[in-house]
Amino acid sequence: MRKLQIDIRNLTLQFNGKPILQDVSFQIFERDYLSIIGPNGAGKTSLLKCLMRIYPITSGEIFFLGKPLQEFSQKNLARLISYVPQSDGRYLPLTVLDFVLLGRYPHLHPFGSFTKEDLKIARDALEITQISHISQRQLSTLSGGERQIAFIAAALAQGADILLLDEPTTFLDPRHEQEVYQILKQINKSMGKTIITVTHDINSAALRSDRVVILKNGTVQYVGSADKIMDNQILARAYDKPFLFTEHPLTKQRIIVPEASER
Q1: How many domains does the chain have?
Q2: Is 252 helix (H, G, I), strand (E, B) or coil?
Q3: Which letter, b or e, does each residue of 204-222 get, where b requires 16 or more Cβ atoms within 10 Å of its Cβ?
Q4: CB–CB of 122/159 below 8 Å?
């Protein structure tokens, strides 16, 4: 039986009295690859920020490894869980290696500096994510795909067992999108890391995830196996529109067909 890592119980988040998340409950287990999907404004990013304690929850509870979230120091929490936010176009004036090395910050002693072990871990993260060849380039010179992979490498160097990623393939071309998904799958399957990702790509969630959470208007509409979501009884209720489906030619999984516009 897999170990329970995150237990979310009746989580509610409000801003100025406006509900953002309402009575959200589900569990995440070690080595899960879980995608969070749903329409715009569903509360997906806000949920990730609650898990990182960026947003203080209004009510409910979050447990990490059986311990209430509020009992962790921010440094100890960072040793358990790493976060790759949406790209905002701002980057530190650092080389890729120096940026990935910053992922080791939860392990630094007060007034300490990076050790040879920290440098080795950072270089290993670059190797795993296949960007060692650009380790001396400035972040500002990278393509969007290269930069996103550098952020994943920094999260990996952090040493946490749980990685949260907020729309990790947004704005990426198909090649870099595929590279990011392949790296995440390797981190999940080969290294045993838990992956929790927010995405708008329903097909990707169904094809690549083990489990899916669907949010709508801040409430949970579905929690369960990814291969069960390709059904209009589930998706049409969440997105307020029906979908067309077909069979993937290679995997035989059910996928959504893009709608054709009238000419």
Answers
A1: 1
A2: coil
A3: bbbbbbebbbbbbebebbb
A4: no
Q: Residue 154: inside a domain, yes or no?
A: yes
Residue 61 is assigned to a structural domain of this protein:
yes
pLDDT at 263: 65
Q: Tell me which residue range forms the domain holding 147.
A: 4-256
Of 178, 124, 120, which Cα lies nearest the Cα of 148? Answer: 178
Q: State pLDDT tens for residues 147-157.
A: 999 999 999 99
pLDDT single digits (tens) 14-73? 998 899 999 999 999 999 999 999 999 999 999 999 999 999 999 999 999 999 999 999
Confirm if 212 and 34 have CB atoms less than 8 A apart: yes
Q: Which of 101, 93, 142 is nearest to 124 (CA)?
A: 101
How many residues does the structure list for the chain?
Answer: 263
Contact in structure between 235 and 229 (CB atoms under 8 Å)? yes
CATH number at residue 170: 3.40.50.300
pLDDT in tens, 187-222: 999 999 999 999 999 999 999 999 999 999 999 999
Residue 263 is assigned to a structural domain of this protein: no
Q: What is the pTM of this model?
A: 0.93
Tokens of 196: 């929790």
Has residue 31 been placed in a domain? yes
Taking the CA atoms of 181, 62, 226 and 21 in sequence, report the sign of the dihedral they define: negative
